[in-house]
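From: lab user (bench 3)
To: helpdesk
Subject: output format question, protein + nicotinamide-adenine-dinucleotide

Hello, I'm new to running complex predictions and I'm not sure whether the block I got back is the full result or only part of it. Here's what I submitted:
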Amino acid sequence: MAAAVGVAAALAGSPPARTSLSLFSLADRVALVTGGHRGIGLEMALALAEAGAVVYCLDLPTQPDSDWLKVQDYVAKLPVSEQNLKGRLEYIAGDVTDQKAMWAAAESIAAREGKINICMANAGILHGCDCLEYSAEDFRKVLDVNASGVLFTAQAAGRQMERLGIPGSIILTASISGSITNPTQHLLAYNASKSAVLQMARSMACELAPKGIRVNSISPGYIVSEMTRGAFLQTGLEARLSAQNPMGRFGRTDELRGIALWLASDASTFCTGTDIKVDGGQCAW
Ligand SMILES: NC(=O)c1ccc[n+]([C@@H]2O[C@H](COP(=O)([O-])OP(=O)(O)OC[C@H]3O[C@@H](n4cnc5c(N)ncnc54)[C@H](O)[C@@H]3O)[C@@H](O)[C@H]2O)c1
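Helpdesk reply: Thanks, we reran it on our side. This is the complete output you should expect:
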C-alpha cells in the first residue's frame, strides 16, 4: 500500500512520506520527447531533466546543433540536489512518421535505461493554405507528422510502458488550433491534425487507464518559436495575433514548463484524458 500523503499522513501522525513539492520529482524517470531539438520540445525536455529525468530528445537532424549541446551541457552542470535530482539529456535522430523506427527507438531506450516513464509526442509542422486549394500532398504531409507521427510516438512509448508494467504518462502536444479556428489564418490541415491529437489523447487515455498509463494533451496558444517566427512574427502579424488573447501577447516556451512537469509527474496521478490549454486566455474570449 502506498504511504499516506497530505492530510491522511498528518492525521496518522507519521512523518510525511512525500511533501507536495516532492511529488514533482522525476528522479529515476526516463522520458522520450519528440521535436526535442528546439522550441517547445527542448524547453519541456529541459524542465523534465531539471526535475531529475533522463530525457531522450528525438528529432530530424542527424546531429544536434550547438544550441542543443549547450543545453545538454547546462543540464550536466546542474548541482545534484538532496532528492538526487540528477537529470541528463540525450539526443537521437529520428522521424516520427516512420512507425517501425519509432517503435525501435523506444525499444532501444528501454533496453539502455531499463524503462520509459514519460513520453511527450510533441513534433509538429505548420503549413497554411486556402481550404479550397489544399493539395492532397500538402494535406497528407501535415497529417502524417502531426497526427500519425503523434500516434506512432505514443504507441512506441506506450508499448514499452505496457511491457514493463510502468504507470507512465504520455503527453501529446495539441494546440488551441484543434479546438478553435485561428481568426484570419488559413490553417485547415494543421487545425484538423490538432483536433485528431485531442481525440487521440481521449481515446488512448480510456484504453490505457486499466494498464495504469495516463494520456493527456497540452494545447498551447501562440508561443514564440521557430515555427511561429517563420509563419507569423516575420510576416508582421505579431500585434494582430497578440490582440487575440486577453493577455495581449505571445507566450514564451518556458511558460509551458510547469504544465509539462505537472503532467509528467506524480503530482497529476488522477488526471487522464484531459486537454489543458496554455493560451493567455485566448479560448476564454
Ligand atoms: N509555437 C506555437 O505557437 C505552438 C502553438 C500550439 C502548438 N504548438 C505545437 O508545439 C509543437 C512544437 O512546436 P514549436 O513551436 O516548438 O515548433 P518548432 O518548429 O520550433 O519545433 C518543432 C520540432 O519538431 C521537429 N519535427 C518536425 N517534423 C518532424 C518529424 N517528422 N520527426 C521528428 N521531428 C520532427 C522539428 O525538427 C522541430 O525541431 C508542435 O507540435 C506545434 O504544432 C506550437
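A quick orientation on your result: The radius of gyration is 19 Å. Let us know if anything else is unclear.
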